[in-house]
Amino acid sequence: MPNPFDNALLQLNRASLAKSFSPELIERLRHPNREIRVSIPIRMDDGTLRVFEGYRVEHSNARGPYKGGIRYHQDTDINEVKALALWMTMKCAVANIPMGGGKGGITVNPKELSKGELERLSRGWVHALSDVLGPKKDVPAPDVNTTPEIMAWMADEFGKITGDTSGAMITGKPLVNGGSEGRGTATAQGGFYVFGALREKLGLPQMCRVVVQGFGNAGDHAAELWTQAGHAVIAVSDSKGAIVSDAGLDIAAVTAHKKATGSVVGLAGTRMISNEELLALDCDLFIPAALENQIRADNVAVIRAKVIMELANGPTTPEADDALFARGIAVVPDILFNAGGVTVSTFEWEQNLNGQHWTEAEVFGKLRTIMEREATNIFDTAQSLRTDLRRAAFVVALGRLEEAMRESHD
Ligand code: NAD
């Protein structure tokens, strides 16, 4: 598999060729400010001790405190976390929110842990990193396999260690623990606003046939939102496989089936296919919402979608980007399309710092303004530079970072 950090660096380079930026800016952004690896010793339920490897990468705080989720996955390593941290810097600049970029993780398959072990591991991650975290320093959030409940354990642990119980050191918390209205669905909702702003410009029909890869927090809400708006979600997948219904899936039934069995696979009235076959389905819109490196040089030729909108981070490699651009298949990049998550996370942080609680209508109203404005801005930038939407999004972000870093000499 391609190294995601190499891909992120390549994207940075390619954007700096689409529009010229100071070589010092690009050189600075090639190097995360800080990479931290920690050992997290956990007493397992059977009495044995296991030591897990955890990470926090603080990429850039030029525009505000480091911000970015925490991933629990057996394949998570420092290169993945570095890539995700760089993308967070770019994403926060794209959304024009006052945050920098960071990311965290633990190499673990959380499905193999009991709830008690998971709680001890999550508290252990905060314990090991409590010096570098904090509302004005570094503010984590959920990512793959991390949940609002885990965020609540982490906020509680941080409060015990530091006395800061504002909750503003982490976002994506449950509502009762200071979470924001709308955070659970924010990533998909933000993407839906981008879709609304760009649908016609990208030549998509009013009613689309949609395929969603990944049925977790990002993917299931996306399937639900597009369905509610009258589009046909004809296929979805998870790590166990994919299901198809040519007439459109009943997403409420898919969600119920996943809740009952742990997977979307096996729902009555649907046909099962593999994740590779999913890529080759004839559709208007393909939404990757799982992991990195799903669309690559070796499989890009099978893609039949008219447009790809990236809810996952890093699902398309630079080589695949070029092949898709050459075929006229637009890719709406992760750092724009999934920026709704970090935007509402930032709203949560702001509410915690100011002791406020906004209504869902306020949250989505502010989110919509940002997503529609930046989608149009990036589309226009791509048109004027005659380049793809990813390079255009990086160009917009780099312009804002350059401005913020002009006076700093670090
Ligand atoms: P999640 O853990 O809730 O769900 C991940 C989903 O992907 C699961 O359904 C899993 O079964 C599936 N999956 C894993 N491997 C797969 C494979 N090889 N093929 C198909 N499906 C597979 O995670 P999430 O929070 O929904 O995150 C998904 C993606 O969205 C990640 O790239 C994440 O970084 C990105 N993202 C999430 C948020 C957020 O707010 N949660 C925000 C921005 C970006």
Strand adjacency order, main sheet: 9-8-7-6-10-11-12
Largest sheet: 7 strands, mixed
Overall residue-averaged pLDDT value: 97
Helix content: 40-55%
GO biological process, one term: L-glutamate catabolic process
Domain Glutamate/phenylalanine/leucine/valine/L-tryptophan dehydrogenase C-terminal: 180-409
Active site: 103 (proton donor)
Protein name: Glutamate dehydrogenase
Overview of the structural elements:
This protein has 410 residues and is an alpha/beta fold. It has two domains: 31-168, 3-Layer(aba) Sandwich (Rossmann fold), CATH 3.40.50; 186-337, NAD(P)-binding Rossmann-like Domain (Rossmann fold, 3-Layer(aba) Sandwich). It is 44% helix and 17% strand. It has 14 helices and twelve strands. The chain has helices at 4-18, 23-29, 78-95, 115-129, 148-162, 186-198, 217-228, 251-261, 275-279, 318-326, 334-337, 340-354, 360-385, 389-405, and strands at residues 34-43, 49-60, 66-73, 101-107, 138-142, 209-213, 232-238, 241-244, 271-273, 285-288, 307-309, 330-332. The strands form two sheets. A seven-stranded mixed sheet has the order 9-8-7-6-10-11-12, sandwiched between helices. α4 crosses α5 (148-162) and α13 (360-385) packs across α14. The protein is globular. The two termini are 34 Å apart. The mean pLDDT is 97. Nicotinamide-adenine-dinucleotide (NAD) is lined by residues 142-145, 187, 213-219, 237-239, 275, 289-291, 311-313, 338, 341.
